[in-house]
Structures are given as C-alpha cells and as structure tokens.
Amino acid sequence: MVPSQKTWTGKVGDTKTFTITTDPADASDSATVIAATTAASSDESIFTVAKTGDGVFEATIATAGTATINFTSETLTTSIAVTAQAAG
Fold first, then answer.
1. Which superkingdom heads the taxonomic lineage of this protein's source (predicted)?
2. CATH code at 73?
C-alpha cells in the first residue's frame, strides 16, 4: 500500500483528502486491497479520519499536536505522520 503522501502539516480546522494505492498498481489483488483498507487516527483528540470511498480518506484537524494516520488492509500497513498546528 502506498499513501498519497508520507506527512501532513496543517492547522486546526484543516481538512485533507488522502488516497491509498498499491505497488504495483496493476497487482492482481489491487482492487481488493484498496477496498479493504481502513484508517485510524493514533490520537482522535488531534484529528479524525474517515473513509469516503475505496482508497479515499478524509482527515480533519481538531487541535494542535502530532499523531499518525494508520492504514491497514489485512496484513498490509502504512501510515502518514500528521503535525497539527494552532490556527492563525
């Protein structure tokens, strides 16, 4: 699994869309892996993340801090490091 980016720095209130693909993109199980992918925030007080489609996730920053978006599809995992800054 490959995230659309490895890090995200944003401000409180920011929302960002991330995508997950497979490597190689034309792997025989690519569609299955992407469809089964889930995401979780390592600290939901800092940001929340929700699946909006197969391989598409939206995160929203709630408060300043650092946390990680963890993506999982069966035994495959990847993550995005999030740095959340105060608004202003």
1. Bacteria
2. 2.60.40.1080
